[in-house]
Amino acid sequence: MSPALLPIIIGVDGGGTRCRVRIRDERGHCLGESEGGASNVHSNITAALLEIRSTIHKALSEAGLDETVCENAALGLGLAGVMARDDGASVRDAFSTFKQVFVESDAIAACIGAHAGQDGGLVIAGTGSAGALRIKGQSIGIGGRGFRIGDDGSAARIGWDALRQALLAADDLKPSSPLTRALMKRFSDDPRAVTHWASDAKGGDYGALAPLVFEYAAQGDPVALPLIKMAARSILDLHAALERRGAERVALVGGLSEPLRPWIALEGPDPF
Q1: What is the spatial distance between Cα 105 and Cα 146, in angstroms, rounded to a whole number?
Q2: Which of 51, 106, 113, 191 lies in the 20 to 30 Å Cα band around 134?
Q3: What pLDDT score was predicted for residue 84?
Q4: Nearest to 69 by CA among 94, 32, 35
Q5: How far apart are CA 41 and CA 92, in angstroms?
């Protein structure tokens, strides 16, 4: 069979921090994979689509394939920021050269994978946060509204909340702490620099501050500690919401899942 007719499956995991692509043949053998930057279609769909396309191209190159294989390829995308039908339609239109295109939120896609297609729930704790449930063939998403109005328990939200507390302390509106001083030091102790940075900051930018909050929380910092405890409680709230909707088992995934586990255990029995 010629390369142009080779049946392949391309999977895309597009998150708020990075995009990952893997290509497999019809037997499931991995042909190539690659990694790119942020690809949250809610934050900036134009930039996200460009990043996804570029990462697919790199994976095809690694596999020794050219763009002509797309005519006979199935493309599956699990993307952060897919919140409405219009989001999925826009993505499908952008990849119309593919034989088949399937678009889901990253939460739903991860839920399907976590339970091997069976019923179950899933909580994502990464740059963003969300819950997902697959039950009796139906998909339900919870949360995942973006860190400015939601995504409690996520790295982006932790970083956003911490930086806000640092500004309040810098303006002498709230007590300072080692964490707030460390955050302000990153901006040369200039609140105006923070405001300028925040005008263009994305979820991944705020999420990059989360490790510092965890570090200071472990030392008992009076600002960091309640922020991390609140994040752990928010993840447990997502779990409880999924249970109320019928989830009998719930998995926890995402880059923040392991750092949060000790704090979740402090809130009570780990339900994941």
Answers
A1: 13
A2: 51
A3: 61
A4: 32
A5: 12
For 207, the token pair is: 């999420």
Q: Which residues contact 222 (CB under 8 A, 6 or more apart)?
A: 175, 177
Return the sign of the alpha-carbon dihedral for residues 194, 150, 75, 84.
negative
86 SS3 class? helix
pLDDT, tens digit, 9 for 90 and up, residues 58-72: 999 999 998 888 888
pLDDT value at residue 139: 86
What does the alpha-carbon distance between residue 143 and residue 156 come to, in Å, rounded to a whole number? 14
Residue linked to tokens 């507390």? 165
Strand partners, 78: 13, 104
Residue ranges of the chain with per-residue pLDDT less than 50: 1-4
Q: CA 40, CA 44: separation in Å to the nearest integer?
A: 7
Helices within the chain (DSSP H only) = 45-62, 85-94, 106-114, 155-170, 178-185, 191-198, 203-207, 210-218, 224-244, 257-267
pLDDT of residue 6: 60
> What number of residues does the chain have?
272
